[in-house]
Amino acid sequence: MRFDNPLPQRSGRLQANIRCFVTSTVDTNFMKTLTINIVLLFMTIISFGQTAFFENYNFNNGGYYIIGTYSESDRNSLKDSLGEFYTNDISILNQFKKDWVFDIPGKQYACGYHYDISVCKNGEIIESFAINLNCSEIVSRKGYFYFDSNKLRKFYGKLKTAYSKTIKFISLTEAREYRAKILLDSTLIMTPSPNWSEFEGEFDFTYKCKEGTTTCLEKEDSLKSVILQEISKTYPEEKFELSDRGGSLTEIDQIISCNKSLSDKFNLFYRDVEGYFGKWRPYSLSLETYWTIKQK
What we know:
There is one protein chain. The chain contains 7 helices and 16 strands. The chain has helices at residues 12-48, 77-82, 90-99, 150-153, 172-182, 220-234, 260-265; strands spanning 51-52, 64-70, 85-87, 101-102, 115-121, 124-132, 137-140, 143-146, 160-161, 163-168, 188-190, 201-208, 240-247, 251-258, 281-282, 286-291. The strands form 4 sheets. It has a 7-stranded antiparallel beta sheet. A hairpin with a 3-residue loop joins strand 13 and strand 14 (251-258).
């Protein structure tokens, strides 16, 4: 290290001692700074590697629920003990928010799931993810992560029982009116948004790529945009939604949710109207609901 102001001339031993002191001080300060920087870097890496599942919710505002509902999987003692549960207690919601932070990637086991965990407000689902307690895995749109069952077990005795009720309807009008009514009920925790709340049914069609194309499925996203534009242009008065159903190197299959009026006139792309997937399929009119109290 070079100093702009050299040490003044002194006796040999004194000069040497002073130089050793300066060098030692500089080296010590340098090492302290280096150590601090390494610690800060390490903390930054850890911070960026963590995924907080409830970071976007200000539970202090009230009106939020966390609910755990059964999903199909093998037996688990913790699931048997907890049952289907919910909480709207702000302190417990914030404890979930603090504790449910994950940083270890999941193994993506094909295990099925014991619970669907949903964040709800005003009776509707805002976000959901799934947990397998035996395979120690939690899955959401944020990815797969290792899940320690103690993160759920610690809430045993603090959660309330959620009561489920499934209703079947005769007509679409009846179903929609009932759902609109219960969304105003303060004892409703959650009800899904079924497809029939917006559309009457669905059918499948196949989009065949240009002759000679062998990368059809790889370009599904860009092709889907083309399909959307063509349907909207051809049937401007109809509302619809598309979802993927796979495909091949030369074609892609789509499920279209819509009203029957669009199904009756749809001839834009190939459709096997005699087969199961191509024919019109009206939605089953049933609704699963979850409540804070038992329903008659």
